[in-house]
Amino acid sequence: MLKEEIVSIHKGEILLVSGPCQAKLFSGKAHCLGKGFKELIVRKGKSLPIETEEEIASIKLTLYETANYEIHKGGIGYSIWKDELKKYYNGLGKEIKTIAVLGPTDSGKSTLTVILSNLALSQKIKVGIIDGDIGQADLTPPCFIGCKLLKEELFDLRDTQADFILPIGFVDVSLNEELVIESIKKGKDLLKDAELIIINTDGFIEGAGLTYKIKMLKELQPDLIFLIDNENLKNAFSNLGIKLATLSAPKGVMKSKETRIQRREMQYAKFISTNNRIVLEIKNLNLGFLGKKFSGWFEEGGIYTLYDETNQKMRIFHSEESTIIVNSAFKSINLPLSAFENMLVGIEKEGKIQGFGIIEKIIDNKIRLITDMKPKIDTLWLTVIKLINWNEQKIRILRI
Question: Which CATH superfamily is domain 81-260 in?
Answer without folding.
Answer: P-loop containing nucleotide triphosphate hydrolases (3.40.50.300)
